[in-house]
Amino acid sequence: MTRPTTTRSLVLVVTTALAAAALAVPAQARPPAHQRGSVDPLPVVAPRAETPVLHDDDAGGNADADDPAIWRNAAAPGRSLVIATAKEGGLRVYDLDARPVQSIAAPPAEGPDDAPGRFNNVDLVQGLRLSSGRTDLAVTSDRGHDRLRFYRIDRDRAGGPLTDVTDPAAPAVFSRDQAEINDQRTAYGLATWTDPASGKSFALVSRRERTGIALLELLPAAGGTVTYRKVRTLDLPTTFRLPDGTSWAPCAEPGELPQVEGMVVDPANGILYAGQEDVGIWRLRADLTGTPKLIDKVREYGVPGVYDEETEECAPGTDPGYGGTRISSDVEGLTLVTESGGDGYLLASSQGDNTFAAYDREIGDRNEYEGGFRVAPAGSTLDGSEECDGAAALNAPLGPKYPRGLLVVQDGHDAPGDGDRPATNFKFVDLGTVLDALDD
Q1: CA angle at residue 264 from 116 to 436, to 5 degrees?
Q2: Per-residue pLDDT tens digits for 158-173
């Protein structure tokens, strides 16, 4: 693997012509999106627990569940933690019973007219060397301030397991000044990666309403804090050449480009998988060199649309049939189920039809589709997952409750609801039941 060797930011722009080569598909059109997909119904799995509901309104502190990460306590796996973002509500920490352990507020706005802190995605880094010694970290993208935030993990610390260790001088990821930060084309999706050859740790960060991804090297700073430097950036395509020779771009509000949120890096080979929400799933090197490859497309790929200013929605046109058959936009919540010998799955949340798709983790098998599943209700008071934003899987024993591992998925519409209040939370699913469903 080629590792970053320069301290200057380099920009790699994937051109439309390059995108056309990467996206080559047969010229014949397939049936419209609503007629494509699996003939047999997907298997269902049910959650074992759910976190308390969050409400994205003033009374609920504008807390909106988004993205989880699972931290394994090697000394006592049954006392492991789930760390999750709640947007303006900051961070939430839960035990394996889905009970709250700690709540951390997002930082306030810089000034009265500035955007407040807003934690979008979270991932983990193990054993990062700081001036105070090696430590496990939770890393989150603060969309409101266009920065990364870092939290040291200490399970038995009085006051809660997370401690903020962000360098106060950590720079903005994409913005040049506060005015640009307030436009909120800022740090959005997030995945971490440690290069085994160099031992260096990185964060890959996508940009809201843009196609850019930045590679940031994580660095120790004074007083046991953490900062970062930008190594290089890459822009995924904004328009795509279709087999009939026309160009297509996903319909969006004027000025918005097809953004990426869900991302995950395979630690075994340094491969990044990135979900471009209205396009599909890309496979590329985590060091952001080389040519990205689109391994699957959303069903809506190639469908023209016109944005309606009044409804703030896109009115779709006739489907030419160039899309995929497994996932519907938005594609979100990418996570890996790792198994020995390189086996395992890439899981993706297909938000448009409330399903999850599983792909072979092995590149030698071309990341082929292996099946899918739904997270369905376990009963009248424990519902499933709808419009899932974020997901995290850990295929390791986690005590008696989850001896075969854990899958945590966001639920965009918790039920039973509370009137018209927006309600979200996280569902805890026995990973063993998911693997059994995929193996059937």
Answers
A1: 120
A2: 999 999 999 999 999 9
- Nearest to residue 56, comparing CAs of 46, 43, 65? 65
Q: Which tokens sit at 144? A: 């409101």
The helices-and-strands tally (H runs, E runs) of the chain is 3, 31
The b-or-e profile of 105-122 (16+ CB within 10 A means b, else e) is ebbeeeeeeebbbbbbbb
Torsion sign, CA atoms 79, 80, 86, 90? positive
CA distance 308 to 323: 23
Separation of alpha carbons 273 and 6, rounded Å? 23
- The residues near 406 (Cβ < 8 Å, ≥ 6 apart) are 70, 82, 96, 393, 394, 398, 428, 429, 430, 431
Cβ contact 25:68 at 8 Å: no
Q: Which of 426, 424, 422 is nearest to 57 (CA)?
A: 422
User: Which residue's structure tokens are 């319909």?
Assistant: 251
State how far Cα 60 lies from the chain centre.
24
- Say whether pLDDT at 253 is over 50: yes
Among residues 332, 300, 440, 425, which one has the least CA distance to residue 47?
Answer: 425
**d(Cα 93, Cα 81) in Å, to the nearest integer?**
7
Cβ-proximal residues to 303 (8 Å cutoff; 6+ apart), any chain? 33, 316, 317, 318, 319, 320, 323
Asked if 55 and 12 touch (Cβ cutoff 8 Å), the reply is no
Q: How far is CA 96 from the centre of its chain?
A: 21
Question: Nearest Cα to 373, choosing from 424, 337, 326, 332?
Answer: 326
202-246: per-residue pLDDT in tens? 999 999 999 999 999 999 999 999 999 999 999 999 999 999 999
Strands 423-430 and 406-411: antiparallel
Tell me the torsion sign for CA atoms 74, 141, 190, 409. positive
CA-to-CA distance for 100 and 357, rounded, in angstroms? 29
CA distance 338 to 366: 16
Nearest to 172 by CA among 209, 145, 203, 211: 145
CA separation for the pair 91, 394 (Å, rounded): 20
Burial of 29 (0-12, 13-18, 19+ CB in 10 A): middle
